Amino acid sequence: xxxxxxxxxxxxxxxxxxxxxxxxxxxxxxxxxxxxxxxxxxxxxxxxxxxxxxxxxxxxxxxxxxxxxxxxxxxxxxxxxxxxxxxxxxxxxxxxxxxxxxxxxxxxxxxxxxxxxxxxxxxxxxxxxxxxxxxxxxxxxxxxxxxxxxxxxxxxxxxxxxxxxxxxxxxxxxxxxxxxxxxxxxxxxxxxxxxxxxxxxxxxxxxxxxxxxxxxxxxxxxxxxxxxxxxxxxxxxxxxxxxxxxxxxxxxxxxxxxxxxxxxxxxxxxxxxxxxxxxxxxxxxxxxxxxxxx
Length: 294
Description:
There is one protein chain. The chain is an alpha/beta fold and 294 residues long. Helices cover 41% and strands 15% of the residues. The protein has 13 helices and 9 strands. The longest helix is centred in the C-terminal third of the chain and has 16 residues, at 278-293. It is elongated and about 100 Å long.
C-alpha cells in the first residue's frame, strides 16, 4: 500500500507541473527504493504488478526523465514549505479539518454561507432541531425528519446531515437548477445531489424536475414497442360482451354493454352506481337480451 502511495505522489507531481516537464529531461528523486526500481527507465515493469502501477508506468513513458533513489535522511528540503511552522498569534484563524470539509461543502453550492444560514434560521421546520443541537438535548423524531439526531451538525448557522448541506425550501429550486444544468438523467443527478445536499423529498423533486424537462424528454429512449393484441373473433352472440360504467351525467349513471358478435348496444340508467358486482349485472343483462332475441 505504501508503494502505491509513493507512486501516486510521483504521478501527482508530474501532472501538476506537466507544462514545465513535458518535452524536457528532468530527474525524479524518491526515498522509496522499490519505486526507483519499478519506474527505472532501463527496467521493465514486473508482469505481476498491480494494474494501477502499470497505468502509472505507462503514463510516465511519455516523459523524458531519470529516477534516482535518495535516503529519507537526505530529503530535508522536500517538505520544508509544508512543515515550516507558522507564526499564528490569533487562534481564531485555526480551522479544524472537519470544519474545513463542511465549509467546502457549503461553498460548492450556488449559495453563500451567509445566505444559507439566514434562510435556515427563518425555516420553522428545523428550529427545534437547531436548538437541540445547540443545547445538547434530544428532539422528537418528527422534528428531525425521522433521522438520528447525531447525524446533524451546525456550521455558521447552516444545518448539515453528515457532510451534506440541508437546503431550505426557498433555495431548493436554485440548487436543483444547478444540479440539472448539464441535463444528466435521474439516476446521475440523484447520485450527484447525494454528495452535496439534502432535504426531505430530494429524490422525488429530482424525478419531477427531470420528468418535466423538455430537453431531457426529447432525447430519452423511446419505450419498447409491443405487439398489438387482437381480440379473437366471436362465433356466436354474447360469446364476449364489453361492459363499462359512464357518468355521472345530469346526476345519472349509465351501465353500457356491447355484444362483440352482433355489435348490439344496450344501456341502463340509474341515479347511482349499483352496489352489486358488474359481472352480475352483465350476466343478467345478457340473459335478458338473449331471451328477447328469441
